[in-house]
Amino acid sequence: MDNQEFLKVVGNSFKKFLETGSRSNEKLKILHGAIAKDLRERLGMGYSVCSLGIGNGKEEKLDGRYIDKVVDITIKRGQKSIAGIGVKFVMQNYSQNSNNYFENMLGETANIRCANIPYFQIFIIPDTLPYYNKQGLLQKWEEFTVHNAIKYLTLSEDNIQTSIHTPTKTLLFVVHLPEITKPIADKYDYVDYYESQTDFVVRESSERYGNFSSAVIYNDYEDFANKVVHYIQFM
Question: Which among 196, 193, 168, 170 is positioned nearest to 182, based on CA atoms?
């Protein structure tokens, strides 16, 4: 799966989210399943990958240092679970949870990496996304800004050998959805607008947030996947 194919998968996941809502895991089957299948093909014989949307369609637990954790994607060599990947695709109401997303990622990673298991993270977000109130009315349009990216820039400079809370490798992928050309009052207008688009295409965001160091890869799925596979095969 190259970057353009990855973007198509992200678009299909987003469209499934529009159809089924935020509580359904159908969108995850598309996204997690495609990543899992790609990694399985890249890893080759002797490895298997467990996730929604692949094989028996079940996630598996990894043994954490403090608590065992069901993870989005588990990589196995033979019968042994040897690595995990967490995947997050934020589609709405980012600002109220942005710090929680990041802190949860660090805690989840530390728990697993302290058990000597490599753990990778993928974080996907549109560069512009809606913020709704509890009634589903659109309050504002949010942007993923340089301010939001600062913590990922800092993370990118971490030494993964000494910073156990830092993922073995992180993919930050910021996407650009087709522009909305009419007023949107609530989440139903938002869904209706995108469901009516016949030429719906998700692209990489053109925004640049700084120079990321080696621990974080920005908007390059292929590079991330290659590094994950290389790391695992040479463990």
Answer: 193
Packed helices 221-233 and 3-20: angle between N→C axes, nearest 10 degrees: 100
Q: How far apart are CA 123 and CA 116, in angstroms?
A: 22
The closest alpha carbon to 146, from 88, 218, 93, belongs to 218
The tokens for 6 are 């990855």
Read off the DSSP letter of residue 225.
Answer: H
Domain boundaries, the chain: 3-233
Give residue-wise pLDDT tens across range 114-147: 999 999 999 999 999 999 999 999 999 999 999 9
- DSSP sequence for 150-163: HHHHHHHTS-TTT-
Instruction: List the structure tokens of 171.
Output: 């993919």
- Closest listed residue to residue 176, CA positions, set 101, 124, 218: 124
